[in-house]
Each structure stands twice: as structure tokens, then as C-alpha cells.
Design the sequence.
């Protein structure tokens, strides 16, 4: 466990990051985009906003591919798998940021740096 960042991250930043990751489950890329654009002064929220935004974009690309593959018949299963993985990764992100840790989604495309 990496607890080196715990003293540096304020409780307010942790709480906002948790809300962002939970909001990502329902609102997709919107919470990550809002924090990425508005919270430039908080390095922790900027980092986690970037990560949530990258994950949301990756999930949207996967859902788009699933919609296209629905005509073949496998798209419904792909979209269900993406919804489940999105739920799991966002909950894992919320748990990690509640401890003040930086969370990285394993399969996210790093489109935004």
C-alpha cells in the first residue's frame, strides 16, 4: 500500500474525488470532465479527474463498439460486460481515493495527459 500521499491530500479533496468516481458510474464522462476543467489548482483532483475522464472515454468507445456489434449478436454481451466493469472500476476508484491514494484503472486508454 502506498500511504505516502495520505498526509498531503486534504479531506475535502478525498470527498470530492469519491463523489467524482461515484458520479462516473451514472453520469459517465461528465464528473471527470467537470473536475478536470474546474479543479486545476488541486493536483490530486486534477489527477483523478484525468483518470476518471480517460476511463469514461474508454468505456464509451467500448459501448459504441458493442452497439455496432449488436447487429452480429454479441454486442449485448459486450455492453453488459462494460457496464459491470465500469461499476467495479468506479467503486474501486472511490475506495482508493477515500484513503487518499491515487487510483489507476488497469485497462483505460490514456488519451488525456
Sequence:
Amino acid at each position: 500500500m502506498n500511504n505516502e500521499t495520505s498526509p498531503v491530500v486534504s479531506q475535502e479533496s478525498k470527498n470530492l474525488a469519491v463523489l467524482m468516481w461515484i458520479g462516473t458510474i451514472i453520469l459517465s464522462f461528465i464528473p471527470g470532465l467537470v473536475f478536470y476543467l474546474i479543479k486545476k489548482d488541486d493536483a490530486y483532483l486534477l489527477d483523478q479527474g484525468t483518470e476518471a475522464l480517460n476511463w469514461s472515454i474508454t468505456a464509451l468507445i467500448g459501448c459504441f463498439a458493442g452497439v455496432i456489434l449488436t447487429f452480429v449478436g454479441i454486442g449485448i454481451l459486450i455492453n453488459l460486460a462494460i457496464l459491470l466493469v465500469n461499476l467495479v472500476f468506479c467503486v474501486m476508484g472511490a475506495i482508493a481515493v477515500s484513503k487518499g491514494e491515487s487510483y489507476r484503472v488497469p485497462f483505460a486508454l490514456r488519451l488525456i495527459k
